[in-house]
Design brief:
This protein is α+β, with helices and mostly antiparallel strands and about 675 residues long. The protein is built from 15 helices and 33 strands. It starts with a strand and ends in a 13-residue tail after the last strand. About 45% of the residues are buried.
């Protein structure tokens, strides 16, 4: 039995010793004097676009961009030349007299901001490269008078870093669509910030066409430059694209292949039909067929591969002359793997790894909405695009699956839930890292269940806090030291979600709220506030304190047992415990009482018990016929704690800190 009030001499004794204990805690540099951690969180005022519940409002809008792209890869000059038609629809309530375009290849031109920040041999730099987008034409297509042919107006553009300012020939009114025709070319970098590039005859093509920036109700035009470390924020739309490559090459890309009879052999088409109904892996292109030349309908000249992708925010593709190709499927959704013969030892099961990934995330969170997923091997260490996941060879099956399921998982965050990765990187990488722990545990349980993986992440966060190398999560990716990017945006975010799920809300409530967040914001642009409000709306819990301490600030955590008073009366032992909080961050209390008869009792208290005093929380207990031997905080290491030496109290004669009061 336990009570929250004080009675008799125990309360009087505590009153006399408390100032001493509190002074000692303060002298040790612990504790705070205010309770602002529980103050209401500052957030944008809800409106008809974004509701107080965290859901999109009745007047929520976002613009749309549809593309038709034609491009040719010249492997002799290592360059790409392309033309596209973009139809941009203004769903905002205001007229637009200009648009902004993202020209990401300009990050790899001489004198770019990327070149000043990241060395050529660093992960986010470029290798021995002198390139950038060369814009050859940018026209707006105007309808003109009724019955007249459309006319093209050349637009004067202004470039700045990786952004292109484009004044319009006529304003784009709300609800109207403007069409643009663009021609461009660029040299393909050997190493394009570990997001794209080439390795011998293999090309991984991403950020390869001019893309319109996002205009939204939160920031207007999002014109943050592409530096390499920060990723992407894009509008949704439908794409058709055609890429012309040497005839001996095989192409893997976002979307559905529209002309298989032009670029595949009858044998490959037949095998794909079988794979579409199978959950086992079939070899579509084998090493023997690559050697004999039977893998291609012809080996001279060029072939054009045509793809279609609906309701995506980007398209990317890879190509190589020596790609082996495997396929499997889950509920009609194809799972492909493309890899060179040198990678066969680790990649022979990659198609099944991709299949299992979309199955896991679909069954647990949100059904995969696209027709296929492709895992492609190449020089990029790990990068995601809609329906396309780039990975390196991998050291073993565990290492490869961790990367494949991570990059495939990005199809949920941020491809389905389209957050702004350049500003709120954690809504992309951290959320994905969180769902990865379930997938990894499902695939390889011998490496530990999901709880073990969550514990490992907490341990990494705890170590970073002890070393004082942790940083706030809510920091734009381009402002984070690359060496801290992983622990900050990936692991710390995931560990926070694990705490929220296991220790604060409970798995059932958390899962319901998290799935509702995905459902509400699928194919839309949520902000962190939309996430916070949705989680609170569905869970019924105010979590201002948690969002503040874990995501917006950089609080540390150190719970302690400050004072224990005991008094024996007959066969009853009365115990008064003062739990201490030595750092600013607050978490639930998990206390285990051990008794001389070798039994234990666990007492759990929500983090809100610290709301009236963030330094101390007092409880009184009574135990009949039991002698208390020990109290330990967080015995299973379910929380983050930078100093566990103050987590244990032992009764007199057993060693350790003690304080006993006799009647």
């Amino acid at each position: 039995m336990n009570r929250i009030f004080l009675r008799g001499s125990l309360g009087l004794v505590l009153a006399s010793v408390a100032p001493v204990a509190m002074a000692q805690a303060k002298t040790a540099g612990a504790g705070v004097d205010d309770t602002s951690i529980f103050a209401p969180l500052e957030a944008p005022t809800p409106n008809d676009f974004r509701l107080a519940s965290g859901a999109p409002g009745p007047r929520y809008w976002q613009n749309r961009a549809d593309y038709d792209i034609r491009a040719t890869l010249d492997t002799a000059t290592k360059s790409l030349r392309g033309e596209l038609t973009m139809r941009y629809t203004n769903n905002s309530p205001t007229a637009l007299d200009h648009i902004w375009m993202q020209m990401d290849q300009d990050a790899f031109r001489p004198g770019s901001l990327n070149s000043y920040i990241f060395a050529q041999d660093s992960r986010f730099g470029s290798r021995d490269f002198d390139g950038g987008d060369k814009l050859e034409r940018f026209d707006q297509v105007l309808a003109g008078a009724k019955g007249a042919k459309p006319r093209r107006v050349a637009l004067a553009t202004r470039s700045g870093e990786t952004m292109l300012y484009v004044p319009l020939a006529e304003p784009l009114l709300p609800g109207r669509t403007a069409s643009f025709e663009i021609a461009w070319r660029f040299l393909v970098p050997e190493h394009g910030a570990d997001r794209m590039g080439r390795d011998g005859s293999l090309y991984e093509m991403a950020q390869w066409y001019p893309r319109v920036a996002v205009y939204d109700d939160v920031r207007g035009w999002n014109t943050d430059p592409y530096l390499g470390q920060g990723e992407f924020y894009l509008e949704y739309g439908d794409f058709t694209y055609a890429v012309t490559v040497p005839a001996g090459y095989i192409v893997a890309g976002t979307g559905t292949l529209l002309n298989p009879r032009d670029v595949l052999t009858p044998t490959q088409i037949s095998r794909l039909a079988v794979a579409a109904k199978s959950d086992t892996t079939l070899r579509i292109v084998t090493a023997k067929e690559l050697e004999s030349g039977a893998a291609r309908p012809r080996t001279s000249g060029t072939l054009t591969w045509r793809f279609e992708a609906k309701n995506v925010r980007d398209v990317a593709w890879t190509t190589a002359p020596d790609y082996q190709w495997d396929a499997s499927s889950w509920k009609g959704r194809m799972a492909y793997a493309y890899y060179r013969p040198s990678a066969v030892d680790t990649w022979s099961d990659a198609a099944d790894e991709a299949r299992m990934s979309i199955m896991e995330y679909s069954e647990r969170w949100f059904t995969y909405p696209y027709p296929q997923i492709s895992a492609v091997e190449g020089p990029v260490s790990g990068m995601e695009y809609p329906m396309l996941a780039m990975e390196t060879v991998g050291s073993d099956k565990y290492d490869l699956y961790n990367v494949i399921t991570h990059e495939v998982g990005h199809n949920w965050f941020p491809m389905i839930v389209g957050s702004n990765e350049r500003i709120h990187f954690w809504q992309d990488e951290g959320f994905n890292t969180f769902i990865n722990t379930f997938s990894e545990a499902r695939r390889y349980p011998e490496r530990g269940d999901q709880m073990k993986r969550a514990a490992e992440e907490r341990g990494q966060v705890e170590t970073a806090q002890i070393k004082h190398i942790d940083t706030p999560i809510e920091v734009p990716a381009d402002r984070i030291n690359p060496g801290l990017l992983g622990i900050n945006q990936y692991v710390k975010t995931s560990a926070g979600l694990q705490l929220l799920r296991q220790e604060i809300l409970g798995p059932a409530v958390f899962d319901a709220a998290f799935k509702e967040y995905i459902n509400r914001w699928a194919f839309k642009h949520p902000t962190p506030t939309d996430f916070y409000r949705t989680m609170e709306d569905v869970s019924g819990r105010r979590l201002d304190w948690f969002w503040r301490e874990w995501f917006q600030r950089n609080e540390r955590f150190d719970q302690a047992i400050d004072t224990v008073l005991t008094r024996t009366s007959g066969d009853t032992t009365e115990v008064l415990v003062a739990y201490g909080n030595r750092e600013r961050g607050v978490l639930p209390i998990r206390a285990r009482f051990s008794f001389s008869d070798h039994t234990t009792a666990d007492y759990d208290y929500p983090a809100e018990v610290w709301s009236t005093n963030t330094r101390r929380y007092i409880r009184e207990y009574q135990f009949v016929g039991k002698a208390l031997v020990q109290i330990e905080l967080d015995p299973e290491h379910r929380l983050v704690d930078v100093n566990r030496s103050n987590n244990i109290w032992r009764a007199p004669g057993t060693g350790g800190p003690e304080m006993t009061v006799n009647p």
